[in-house]
Amino acid sequence: MLTCREIISTLEMLKSENLDVRTVTLGINLLDCAGEDIAHVKRRITERILGLAGNFVELCDNIGQKYGIPVVNKRIAVSPIAVVGASLSPARLVELAQSLDAVAREARVDFIGGFSALVEKGMARGDRSLIAAIPEALSTTERVCASVNVASTRAGINMDAVLLMGKTVKRAAQLTADRDGIACTKLCVFANIPEDIPFMAGAYLGIGEADAVINVGVSGPGVVKKAIERALETNPGMDLGSVSELIKKTAYKVTRVGELIGREVAEQLKIHFGVVDLSLAPTPHVGDSVGEIFQSLGLRAIGVPGTTAALALLNDAVKKGGAFASSRVGGLSGAFIPVSEDLNISEAVRDGHLCLEKLEAITSVCSVGLDMVALPGDTSEETVSAIMADEMAIGVINNKTTAARLIPVPGKKAGESAYFGGLMGHSTIISVNNGSGDNPFIRRGGMIPAPIHSLRN
Amino acid sequence: MKKAILSILARDRPGIVAAVSRALTDRHCNIENVSQTMLQKEFAGIFIVTMPPGMSSADLHREMASSLEPLGMHIYTKPCEGGEDDCEVENSEPFVITTKGPDRKGLVAGIAEVIARHGVNITNLQAVFKGGNDPGDNIMIYEVDLPATFDRQAFARDLRAKADALHLEISIQHRNIFEAIHRI
């Protein structure tokens, strides 16, 4: 017999706290579709994906309905295209991206990730071709997402790649100048990229993975915020240890939802279940914000002094609660701080509470990085690379994942608004110190060596 | 040995269960199973008992009534039919239907009618009624068993239509989600 309390609190989470499964991502291995003949490659990839994803969206919706929990997004992640398409030219890879876009449309998924390269230790021919193809691929498709891993704690930071990615980001922005550089919203540069992120734009199917896998991304910043508010109403003097405990228990509940739904999708598709990524992932909807959690904790806005400590508490509590809730936790698993996707964070930038430097500082304790950060259009290629390099360094030295999803908005200045639409939201452009100048340090290229503590053998 | 079912209603106070069980033991009856609940200060209990040889449920009723009615308790007795099998529907899935809305006459009857019309059994029913117009104050929870081959879409459709007509918000979901979230 269920208690009244259990039922009512679950329904509250669904109805007014925006509890949902943010994404169910189907990972599909395309390594055996590789080849030199583009027509052949495209056909094999299309067959492979549609063969597995034929009723994927419908199934997710049915299961969502059965439990009364919406599966908001259904996505596909494929093997890194730089490997699958290693023998193809950049032009052919653009064609391949367009083919992936068409397949995503037919399968009715909202994004397809995996237009990716792993270059932490060096760039191979296929990697160079893919990176060269990225600007055009992302500006001529809607649903394709790209990621490039330029650094790892074991390998160090590939600064040649970082330099190249600065140029790539600027070029992608240029090609979509009429839409505020939207191509850049589908491109992430990573350090220590996990192989099983269900979220975009970093989702791809790692090389060590099986033929197919289901990974789930849950969400629930609204649930966490409401839980904190309710607790503070009855106990306004609650200390941080108790807050942490509360967030941990709430994260447990949110993650259980993802585990239940993900397992059932996997079972019905007869694909093995991978991981639950228990990230607090916000959306532009009111009440679905990570930034608001900071306010409920007592900070005026995200970005004011105390933010880093608060985020450290939040990120850790989420991981602990989620780890107990799921048999396998993976992906990013923590709190996201995407500047444009989270209304509250975007406003914090607009109101001057949050600057680029503070954002960078807090990425050292959260699970993602500089995410959806709109920069002034005149930010130089070298500066974009330098911002990336800083973020990569944080990840490499601290043995964690960090990423940079930077959008230099052509023709706009700091303080103005960039509008990306839908889940991507809109954002205030953040100012960059010495942003338009050159950067001889970054130009040097080469490899920043791996830190000594990576020698764990 | 013959079995009987006793159903007892009484104004709640300490000593009811003691009185009932004492009365049963004195008449050489054994309590096999019992379920008890309380609603707004009223005690309600169902006792399945085995009777000694030669006793009928009518006899038991007479005896129990003579002991317990002076204490202000109401008893209903009947013979227990059938075996001990659970009457669980084979291959069924547990669902939970929740309605929320302003109180008025006919809410339970309305929803229960739809449930009955589809041949579905309500296995548990809970209400949080406080009366009045704040929707949050009137919640009904129906736990039901839906056979595996059941047309859930049609059922859901009819329920939603009825809920609309009664100005109720309604949710229908599989029970596992509640257990998954709240139980380890």
Q: Distance between the terminal alpha carbons of chain A, to the nearest Å? A: 52 Å
Task: Bin the helical content of chain A.
Answer: 40-55%
What string, H for helix and E for strand, traces the elements of chain A in order? HEHHEHHEHEEHEEHHEHHHHEHEEEHE
Gross morphology of chain B: elongated
Summarize the structure.
Chain A is an alpha/beta fold and 457 residues long.
Q: How would you describe this protein?
A:
The complex is a heterodimer of chains A (457) and B (184). Chain A has 457 residues and is of the alpha/beta class. Chain A has a single domain (12-457), classed as Anaerobic Ribonucleotide-triphosphate Reductase Large Chain (Alpha-Beta Barrel), CATH 3.20.70. In chain A, 44% of the residues lie in helices and 17% in strands. Chain A has 15 helices and 13 strands. Chain A has helices at 4-16, 38-53, 56-67, 81-84, 90-107, 125-139, 159-175, 221-234, 240-269, 291-297, 307-325, 343-350, 356-363, 381-397, 440-443, and strands at 21-28, 71-78, 111-118, 144-152, 156-158, 187-191, 212-218, 272-277, 369-376, 402-409, 417-419, 426-428, 447-448. In chain A, strands 1, 2, 3, 4, 5, 6, 7, 8, 9, 10 and 13 form an eleven-stranded mixed sheet that branches. Chain A has a two-stranded antiparallel sheet with strand order 11-12. In chain A, β11 (417-419) and β12 form a beta hairpin. The longest helix of chain A is centred in the middle third of the chain and has 30 residues, at 240-269. With 184 residues, chain B is an alpha+beta fold. Chain B folds into two domains: 3-79, Alpha-Beta Plaits, CATH 3.30.70; 92-182, ACT domain (Alpha-Beta Plaits, 2-Layer Sandwich). Chain B is built from five helices and eight strands; from the N terminus they run βαββαββαββαβα. A four-stranded antiparallel sheet of chain B has the order 2-3-1-4, with helices on one face. In chain B, α3 runs antiparallel to α4. Classes of the chains: A alpha/beta (457), B alpha+beta (184).
